[in-house]
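TICKET: design request
STATUS: open
ATTACHED STRUCTURE:
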């Protein structure tokens, strides 16, 4: 598949929200995966202002500890928050000569091995849902071409979410947004339990739960609850000596 074909397929995916079994958690997670595939970035995360004005990060659902510390700080300061408030792209790159004591985001960003961050707003006219944060570890900031594509992806995702809210009833999708922000802890718990039981990595455990949810057209959070409550084991990769230590810092 060429890059152009991959981009076209991604825009179709982001528009496909007008379905009865729309799963916002899977939608947001897939958005971060596509950003990593299509853009010159190391990691991507989505921040939603729900309830406003505070930002929360429901995706990615399975961040490494160092990335999680960056995302926690980004909810309170830095490009993700600035892009949401200004409704404009915000970029930071390179190590400053001095880091202010209050600049927790920059410290955590650099400690995690990143060289910069770019955030684009998720907005459409008067609606502002949050922002898309892109983290890079290369020598150069995000190119103008990649920045334009990132904004286009964020715009398409925003339109998809707003369409889902319009079609499905605002209350129902708002409840899904709330669930997405609250369900990460359940998925993290299930991922750890599954990895320990099956002697597989955390990433493999997450992939097994996600693939089972998609194959059976059910919610990822429901699969996670089954893992926790009933000991359910979704089909996944065979047991490996590569244990959960591979996923921690």
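STATUS: resolved
RESOLUTION: sequence designed for all positions
ATTACHED SEQUENCE:
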């Amino acid at each position: 598949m060429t890059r152009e074909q991959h981009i076209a397929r991604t825009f179709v995916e982001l528009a496909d929200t007008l379905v009865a079994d729309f799963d916002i958690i899977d939608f947001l997670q897939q958005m971060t995966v596509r950003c990593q595939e299509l853009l010159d970035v190391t990691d991507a995360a989505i921040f939603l202002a729900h309830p406003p004005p505070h930002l929360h990060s429901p995706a990615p659902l399975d961040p490494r500890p160092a990335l999680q510390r960056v995302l926690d700080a980004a909810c309170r300061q830095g490009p993700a928050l600035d892009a949401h408030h200004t409704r404009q792209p915000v970029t930071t790159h390179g190590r400053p000569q001095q880091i202010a004591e209050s600049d927790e985001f920059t410290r955590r960003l650099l400690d995690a091995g990143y060289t910069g961050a770019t955030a684009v707003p998720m907005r459409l006219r008067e609606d502002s849902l949050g922002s898309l944060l892109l983290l890079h570890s290369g020598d150069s900031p995000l190119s103008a071409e990649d920045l334009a594509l990132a904004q286009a992806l964020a715009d398409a995702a925003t339109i998809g979410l707003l369409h889902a809210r319009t079609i499905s009833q605002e209350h129902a999708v708002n409840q899904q947004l709330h669930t997405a922000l609250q369900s990460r802890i359940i998925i993290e718990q299930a991922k750890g339990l599954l990895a320990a039981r099956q002697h597989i990595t955390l990433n493999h455990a997450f992939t097994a739960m996600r693939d089972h949810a998609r194959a059976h057209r059910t919610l990822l959070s429901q699969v996670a609850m089954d893992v926790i409550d009933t000991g359910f084991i979704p089909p996944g990769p065979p047991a490996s000596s590569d244990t959960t230590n591979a996923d921690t810092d």
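CLOSING REMARK: Residues 3-169 form a domain with the Beta-Lactamase fold (CATH 3.30.450.40). The longest strand covers residues 127-136.
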